[in-house]
UniProtKB/TrEMBL annotation:
GO molecular function terms listed in the Swiss-Prot or TrEMBL record: 2-hydroxyacyl-CoA lyase activity; magnesium ion binding; thiamine pyrophosphate binding
Cellular compartments per GO CC: peroxisome
Reactions listed under catalytic activity: an (R)-2-hydroxy-long-chain-fatty acyl-CoA = a long-chain fatty aldehyde + formyl-CoA; 2-hydroxyoctadecanoyl-CoA = heptadecanal + formyl-CoA; a 2-hydroxy-3-methyl fatty acyl-CoA = a 2-methyl-branched fatty aldehyde + formyl-CoA
Magnesium found in the keyword field: yes
Domain Thiamine pyrophosphate enzyme central: 128-257
Organism: Sinocyclocheilus rhinocerous
Superkingdom of this protein's organism: Eukaryota
Gene: hacl1
Classification of source organism: Eukaryota, Metazoa, Chordata, Craniata, Vertebrata
Entry protein name: 2-hydroxyacyl-CoA lyase
Protein family according to the UniProt entry: Belongs to the TPP enzyme family.
C-alpha cells in the first residue's frame, strides 16, 4: 500500500497547480507541511510576522476545510482557481491539525490536474457603441488606469488606446507603469485638475473608492460621465452610475474599443490639453523648488529627488506609509508594469517587507538582476521590521529606505522631545502621532549581518544608496532622517463654483502582482 500523509497531499496538490513558492511561519504541525513542500520541489521562505493568519479567513474570496484527506487536492485546486478567476484575491484553506500527519492509501485520493487559465470575456457590443459615442462627444476626456489593467497584463492594449486616441491618462497607485510615468500623455502631475474638470472618464480596472474620492464632488464634476471597464459585475456603477458599463477582460474590451474608435483622435491642441499642461508645469516647479532646498534636515521632496536620480528604471518599488507613500508615489517614477507594490485599498501597514521579500525571491530565482527597493515610513517599518532577519537569512539584496520623520505624519525633534520629558508623564504629554526621535532603525539591519546606514545629508544619502545598489550580496537599510515638520506641498482645489478648498489627505493603496503573478493561498493548521 502506497501511503501518503496529509502534509504530502497539500504539498503535491500545490505543486500540481504550478505553485512555486510557499511563505510561512513554522511550528507544529506546519513544520511537516513546509518540509513536504520542499520535498515536492516548492521553494519555502520562512517569515517572521504572524499578526493575522486567522483574520484572513474573513477577507478571502474562498475559504474551505477539507472534510477528509481524499478531498485535499480538490479543495486546493478550487482555492487556486478561485484566487485567479475573476477579480484576483486570496483563498483560505483550514486543515485540521490531526490531518497533517494522518495517512491514506494514495490510490484512494482524488487527484486533480492544474486548473485552466482564466476565461477571457468581451463586453456587450451595445455598450461598446455607447462608450465610443461618449468619447467622441467629450470635451475633456480622461483615462484612469487601475491595478486591474496591471493584473490583466493589458499594457499593450492600453498603450495603443492612449496613443491612438490621444487622450490624457492618469494612473492609480498600482496602475503606475502600465504606461511609463514619463509618457507624454501622463497627467499625474495635474491629478486634481484632471479629476475635477474631466467630463468623460474611462475607468480601466480602477474602482471609485476613497483613493479616487468615490467619484464625488468636489473632487469630480457632478456631471461627469463614467465609462467603466471591469471584470467584476458587482463593481459596475458603484458610487457613480456608469454611463457605459463594459463587463469583461480589460485587454479584450480595450481591443473592442480600438476596433470602433480607431478613426477618431482627440486634438492635441485642445483647450483641455493646454489647461492640463499649464497645471503640470506649475506643480512641477513647486516640487522642484522643494526638492532643491539645501536646508537640513532634508524634507521629503529633497530625499525623494535624489533617490529617484539613482534608482534603476527597472527596479521594483515597494512602498508603504502615509506621507512617505503619498509623496513617493509622485516623485519616484515607474516605467514598467507590475513594478510597484504598496499598502493598497485598505491601507494595510506592515505589508512592505513581505512584498519586498516575495519580489526579491522571484527576481533572485530568475536571475533578472532587477533590484527591489522598499521605501518605508518610520511608523510603517515598525509593523514588520523584524522581517529584515528573513532578508539576511536568505541573503536577499533588498534595499530598505526608511524615511524617518520621528512620527506618524509628523513628529518632534530630539530637543523638543527632551523638553516634553521634563514636563512629566509622556503618556499624557507626548502627541499620539510622535515616535522616538532619530530612532536607529539601521542598527536593526546591522544586527543580523546586513548593511545599515544613518543618513542626514544629501551627500550621505547618495553615497549610501549607491553603495547599496552596488552590493548584490546582502540587504541594506538606509535610515534617512528628515525634518519632523516636513509635509506634502499645499494643494489647492478649485471647484466649479470658483471657491478654493485647501486640503490634506491620507492616501494608502494594494495589489499583489509582479512581472509574474504572486499567488496567495493562505493555510491554517
Amino acid at each position: 500500500m502506497d501511503e501518503v500523509t496529509g502534509a504530502q497531499l497539500v504539498a503535491e496538490a500545490l505543486k500540481s497547480q504550478n505553485v512555486e513558492y510557499m511563505f510561512g511561519i513554522v511550528g507544529v504541525p506546519i513544520i511537516e507541511v513546509a518540509m513536504a513542500a520542499q520535498a515536492a520541489g516548492i521553494k519555502y521562505v520562512g517569515m517572521r510576522n504572524e499578526q493575522a493568519v486567522e483574520a484572513c479567513r474573513l477577507y478571502s474570496k474562498f475559504s474551505a476545510r477539507p472534510s477528509s484527506l481524499e478531498m485535499i487536492p480538490a479543495v486546493v485546486e478550487k482555492a487556486v482557481r478561485s484566487s485567479i478567476y475573476g477579480r484576483p484575491g486570496a483563498s483560505y484553506i483550514d486543515i485540521a491539525g490531526d490531518m497533517v500527519n494522518a495517512k491514506i492509501d494514495r490510490a484512494n485520493v482524488r487527484f486533480v490536474s492544474c486548473c485552466p487559465a482564466p476565461p477571457v470575456s468581451q463586453a456587450d457590443s451595445r455598450e461598446i457603441t455607447q462608450a465610443v459615442r461618449l468619447l467622441r462627444a467629450a470635451q475633456r476626456p480622461l483615462i484612469i488606469i487601475g491595478k486591474g489593467a496591471a493584473y490583466a497584463r493589458a499594457e499593450k492594449e492600453v498603450r495603443e488606446l492612449v496613443e491612438v486616441t490621444g487622450i490624457p491618462f492618469l494612473p492609480t497607485p498600482m496602475g503606475k507603469g502600465i504606461l511609463p510615468d514619463d509618457h507624454p500623455n501622463c497627467v499625474a502631475a495635474a491629478r486634481s485638475r484632471a479629476l475635477l474638470q474631466a467630463d468623460v472618464i474611462v475607468l480601466l480596472g480602477a474602482r471609485l473608492n476613497w483613493i479616487l474620492h468615490f467619484g464625488f464632488p468636489p473632487r469630480f464634476s457632478p456631471h461627469v460621465k463614467i465609462i467603466q471597464v471591469d471584470l467584476c459585475a458587482e463593481e459596475l456603477s458603484n458610487n457613480v452610475r456608469a454611463a457605459s458599463a463594459l463587463l469583461g477582460d480589460i485587454g479584450a474590451v480595450v481591443r473592442q474599443l480600438l476596433e470602433t474608435v480607431r478613426s477618431w483622435r482627440f486634438p492635441s491642441d485642445s483647450q483641455w490639453w493646454l489647461t492640463l499642461k499649464e497645471k503640470m508645469t506649475a506643480n512641477a516647479q513647486i516640487s522642484k523648488s522643494l526638492a532643491l532646498r539645501s536646508t537640513l534636515p532634508m524634507n521629503y521632496y529633497t530625499a525623494f529627488h535624489h533617490i529617484s536620480e539613482l534608482l534603476p528604471k527597472d527596479c521594483i518599488i515597494v512602498s508603504e506609509g502615509a506621507n512617505t507613500m503619498d509623496i513617493g508615489r509622485t516623485m519616484l517614477l515607474n516605467y514598467l508594469p507590475r513594478h510597484r507594490l504598496d499598502a493598497g485599498t485598505f491601507g494595510t501597514m506592515g505589508v512592505g517587507p513581505g512584498f519586498a521579500i516575495a519580489a526579491a525571491v522571484l527576481e533572485q530565482t530568475q536571475k533578472s538582476a532587477q533590484r527591489v527597493v522598499c521605501i518605508e515610513g518610520d511608523s510603517a517599518f515598525g509593523f514588520s521590521g523584524m522581517e529584515v532577519e528573513t532578508m539576511c537569512r536568505y541573503k536577499l539584496p533588498i534595499i530598505i529606505i526608511v524615511i524617518n520623520n520621528n512620527g506618524i505624519y509628523s513628529g518632534v525633534d530630539p530637543k523638543t522631545w527632551k523638553e516634553m520629558e521634563k514636563m512629566g508623564d509622556m503618556t499624557t504629554i507626548a502627541p499620539p502621532v510622535t515616535l522616538l526621535p532619530e530612532a536607529r532603525y539601521e542598527q536593526v539591519m546591522s544586527a543580523f549581518g546586513g548593511r545599515g546606514y544613518l543618513v542626514r545629508t544629501v551627500e550621505e544619502l547618495r553615497s549610501a544608496l549607491q553603495e547599496s545598489l552596488n552590493n548584490t550580496q546582502m540587504p541594506s537599510l538606509l535610515n534617512v532622517l528628515i525634518d519632523p515638520a516636513s509635509d506634502r506641498k499645499q494643494q489647492v482645489l478649485h471647484t466649479h463654483t470658483h471657491t478654493a478648498l485647501h486640503y490634506s489627505s491620507i492616501s494608502w493603496n494594494i495589489i499583489n502582482n509582479l512581472d509574474k503573478t504572486l499567488l496567495s493561498c493562505i493555510f491554517s493548521f
